[in-house]
Amino acid sequence: MSRIRSFVTVSLLGALILPVAATAKEMIADTTERKQALTSWGIQFEEFEYRYSDDDEELGVWNADIFYGTDDLKVRWLTKGEYAIEEQAYEQLENQLVGQVPISTFFDAKAGVRFDTPEGPDRTYAVLGVAGLAPQWFEIDANLYVSDEGDTSAELDAEYELLLTNYWILAATLDATVAFSEDREIGVGKGLVSTETGLRLSYDLIDRSFSPYVGVVHERKYGDTADFAEEEGGGTEDWFAVVGARISF
User: Are 130 and 140 in contact (CB under 8 A)?
Assistant: First the structure.
């Protein structure tokens, strides 16, 4: 009789434990799968283009974002530059390494370092900024920089995309830089430093993974920055015809 009771007891325990164990295993597997699904990486070239100016200057230009992480934390390497084709020299080379975390439904905060190779001595900056989607569907990227020389500046990038059809997209961009102190060695004066505005018409060939475009870009320097450029024999304003592509992997 005792053997029968033991068998019944073991059977009942098994009937209770096995479903619980199976459910726990499914929950662990589902959690692991979701965590793995949220981890992502990619490479995006927002700009990869050839520019030809109204004074016959030719430039190769890129603006790229290489990222890895989850929705809660991403590590991003942001790189952009301008390469003068005839002179075979960089006019601008900038790299940022930042960590990015969400602070609201539509905006992320980021912090890190920036390494710059302007015309003059190299510069290293601390970076603090926000990036996200503002009302009316404007993409905003705003940053505050403090250099290793103690100089501070801020930069605002804004973009608006108008969907003309499912494939044709008209994108307007604005990049404005303001300096709160002068850095004469790299030709930057206090106040509004420069603006770059662009208008690009693209066509999505491969589901926004490859979108060739044509457009125009206007660059201008202001105030003391413009005076420094003129003293060095440079210009303060340029118009460019642009052809390039947006690429993502």
Answer: yes
| 46-63: pLDDT as tens digits | 999 999 998 899 999 999
- Long-range contacts of residues 39-42, Cβ cutoff 8 Å, at least 24 apart: 39/68, 39/69, 39/70, 40/67, 40/68, 40/69, 40/70, 41/67, 41/68, 41/69, 42/66, 42/67, 42/248, 42/249
pLDDT for position 34:
47
**Per-residue pLDDT averaged across 23-47, rounded?**
64
Range in 17-31, 88-102, 159-173, 199-213 the model is least confident about: 17-31
Buried b (16+ CB within 10 A) or exposed e, 121-154: eebebebbbbbbeeeeeebbbbbbbbbeeebebb
